[in-house]
Amino acid sequence: MATPRCGVKDKVGPAADGRSKRYALQGSRWRTKNLTYKLSKYPTGLNKQEVDKEIAKAFSVWSGETDLTFTPKSGYENVHIEIRFEVGEHGDGDPFDGPGGTLAHAYFPVYGGDAHFDDSERWTIRSYRGTNLFQVAAHEFGHSLGLSHSDIKSALMAPFYRGYDPYFTLDQDDIDAIQALYGKKTNYGPRGQGTTSRPSPPAEEDPELCKDPKVDAMFNTKDGDTIVFKGKHYWKLTDNGVASGYPRRISSTWKELPSNIDAAFTYRNGKTYFFKGTQYWRYINSTMDGDYPKEISDGFTGIPDHIDAATVWTGNGKIYFYKGTKFWRFDPASKPPVRSNYPKLIKNWQGIPDHVNAAVTYKGYTYFFQDNAYYRFNDRTFSVDVAEPAFPRSTAYWWFGCKSANRGTLGKDNRPFASVSNMDVADDDTYYYGSLDNIDDIILDAGGTDELVTSSSNHGHADSGTSSLSTHSGNTWQPFLMNIAMTTIIARFIATT
């Protein structure tokens, strides 16, 4: 079984003492923090403007954690990093091998920093199919900046290409690595803090949400906005709290949609589904998409009425519904869409309580809300995230910008602790996959259709400092649980390519 991976010959794997060496630095770096780049040859089959955006986005992954800047150039201007999409032999003595082998290679700063991509590959943008341009480019640019491979399997700089992640975020190991070369970011914008936690709240507060932060539903729109539903109103959230001009009436934007919605999510087809009682509605942005409402039992066979929350999980792109102490996984590409071994107990999601009110994905994590508290679920370790302060935390403070709310850990019944407790932080190479009952829930399956089809629907690299993403085989993962998980990841790569 072949897995797309970076074939650089740097040393990876456990150190002599059995512990992970974590991130690795190649030894060279740029002497300036203001770097330039240009795309000399574009990939075939993709819009140039879209490619420009994805390349800029890939560079921003690194400028977001350092004071590095990346300025695009064109024509015959000299630049620090030249980017080309090539086929076969392309002048550097390291020819590409066609589809399915080497994906790309990049040179460390001491060797010029250029990045080459195999134009024989099926490069895609925001799709589970093919090879994701943004994530491969971000990895290769890490090499262009001086990073070698990491032993942390969740890191961007790990050797293995892990497939499309619609909520991609850098691992802390990646951040530590790039900051070891270029220092920490000092010119933060309004977001202020890191990438894995909500930033400090703004000065203004929304009185309704601060008084009672329990919400009906949360979801992300097609354009990436995070929306909160409560009663008759909705709020749009920013990285700092609540956007100005809210709340607004739900009916003013989603006409014919009732108040007191139970749950909502936006699927990968860009359509948003709302649930209340026994019925559901489907919208494209703010326009109803067809004749709705319809019965949940008709459109989502196997899913109960009166659900508590719903979300599309980042681990596999499947839809999860939560009600009381149980959850269901819905896969529109399968028949039946809900397997016979469902429902399962919510306690299989390690650390998540029963009777959640809402769930939403944000930058690679899944957040669960219960009354006035929330839990950050690490979709890579499959457990509530280890952080300081620990979870659960106050939704009012961390999500809605209520500066008067408690910012520490909430205790029993979501009441504040007298002080924030210290928690043991697991080693970066420790993975928790839950019980064996969870194995089928963490499979990273890239197959299926981009349409949500329901029963009532009308539709459906190398030497001299060179790094590459290439094919590798024969990896043995232990323990047994890891073996199962990685086998499923490999299966995803085959399906993807």
UniProtKB/TrEMBL annotation:
Binding sites annotated in the UniProt record for Ca(2+) 2: G112, D114
Entry binding sites for Zn(2+) 2: C6, H139, H143, H149, M157
Active site annotation, chain numbering: E140
Binding site for Ca(2+) 3: D97, G98, D118, E121
CDD domains: HX (cd00094), ZnMc_MMP (cd04278)
Keywords: Calcium, Disulfide bond, Hydrolase, Metal-binding, Metalloprotease, Protease, Repeat, Signal, Zinc, Zymogen
Coiled-coil segments: none
Pfam families on file: Hemopexin (PF00045), Peptidase_M10 (PF00413)
Gene Ontology biological process terms in this record: collagen catabolic process; extracellular matrix organization; proteolysis
UniProt-annotated stretches for the region Disordered: 186-210
Domain Peptidase metallopeptidase: 26-184
Record: residues binding Ca(2+) 5: A264, A310
GO molecular function: metalloendopeptidase activity; zinc ion binding
Hemopexin repeats by residue range: 212-257, 258-303, 304-353, 354-402
Protein family: Belongs to the peptidase M10A family.
Protein name as catalogued: Matrix metalloproteinase-14
Protein's organism: Ooceraea biroi (Clonal raider ant)
